[in-house]
Amino acid sequence: MDTRRLDLNLLVTLEALLIEQNVTRAAARLHLSQPAVSAQLGRLRAVFNDPLLIPAQRGMTPTAKALELLVPLRQALDQVRVAVTTHLNFEPATASLTVSIACTDYVQAALIKHIVVAMRREAPGVRIALRILDVPQLELQMTHGEVDLAVINMNGAPPALRSQHLYDEGYVLIGRRGHPSLRTDLSVDEFAQLEHVVVSLRGGGFSTSVDNALVARGQRRNVVLSASSFLPVPELVAQSDCVALVPSRLVEGRGEQLLWVDPPLPVEGFAIGMFWHERSDGHAGFRWVREFIALVADSRASMLNRVEPGSTESNSLAR
């Protein structure tokens, strides 16, 4: 059989005819005229090279070939209906969906872990696959369906992707509780003399925009370690006299180990947003996931913004 000649509407008509075994009732079921259904039956007979339905005293009788087709035909059409319904309507409590999210380890620690916990309650059938972020390849990965969503720094993201702002992040200066020199009223000179850990995402760098600002003031920071990720920094700082500038959300819940204060000079923060491809924009499941992520991000931001860095409440938040 040449399937290129096959119209999906013909299969829907065949299903109705096999169920009703009557052209008039099948036409009513399909909201079509009787002549239209009769014409489609003629086309079906040509496609399958079989009468399919034979006139009988009451209605029509399916042929052996028609009876053979009924079960697989209904299964195939049911799968199509489920696919279309899932696309248009998403019930989080019962739906199954896998979402591939590209993000940095900072985003995993600061936001994704909270999203996963909340989503397990709301949508237990939704699975999240975390992918290593590769910004230069991101648009291509989304085009090919390898990545469904990216939660990343909005600066430098591919402009062709759709986006939504999630939250703004700032930096705090962290050190261990009981650090002999860390306090809220540090001068820039005192700040520069501390033993600093910096993060170089590309690896090996000992200078950041903060160091450029210090150089412009004729000062130089005492950098003793360059890390390739933010994740190990709080633990390292908690066990030494080193300090570090880190995104504020990384120290949430570490008030027993760490003290954090505002840096004594301006440190530019960044905005985190969601990015996705046009191909998944209208999908009900992915749309629900995006709305859920935005809701969790907004809730977290509201909670964290209620306190100021360096305050007793801030340093004990979520103990």
From TrEMBL:
GO terms assigned for molecular function: DNA binding; DNA-binding transcription factor activity
Gene3D superfamilies the UniProt entry points to: Periplasmic binding protein-like II, Winged helix-like DNA-binding domain superfamily/Winged helix DNA-binding domain
Gene: syrM1
Pfam families: HTH_1 (PF00126), LysR_substrate (PF03466)
Family affiliation: Belongs to the LysR transcriptional regulatory family.
Organism of origin: Pseudomonas fluorescens
Keyword Transcription regulation: yes
Name recorded for this polypeptide: HTH-type transcriptional regulator SyrM 1
Domain spans labelled HTH lysR-type: 6-63
DNA-binding found in the keyword field: yes
Entry keyword set: DNA-binding, Transcription, Transcription regulation
